[in-house]
Design brief:
alpha+beta, two-stranded antiparallel ribbon, 72 residues, rod-shaped
Length: 72
């Protein structure tokens, strides 16, 4: 690989096409992996939130039942 310079400023990287396409493919693969990991994390967070909401609802129902029993 070679780096091209114009007026001492890097303007690009020259490399054989097979190396560039390989690097691009690896980068795309990395991006896909990152997206999948982010999606998994979001799903886990949503599941945790749903579980917490269910627990809160169950607790509220239990409290209501206890209040009804005490009132009777």
């Amino acid at each position: 690989m070679q780096i091209q310079f114009v007026n001492n400023v890097s303007v690009g990287i020259c490399a054989p096409p097979h190396l560039l396409s390989r690097a691009l493919a690896e980068r795309q693969y990395d991006l896909v992996e990152e997206e999948e990991e982010e999606e998994e994390e979001e799903e886990e967070e949503e599941e945790e939130e749903e579980e917490e909401e269910e627990e809160e609802e169950e607790e509220e129902e239990e409290e209501e039942e206890e209040e009804e029993e005490e009132g009777v």
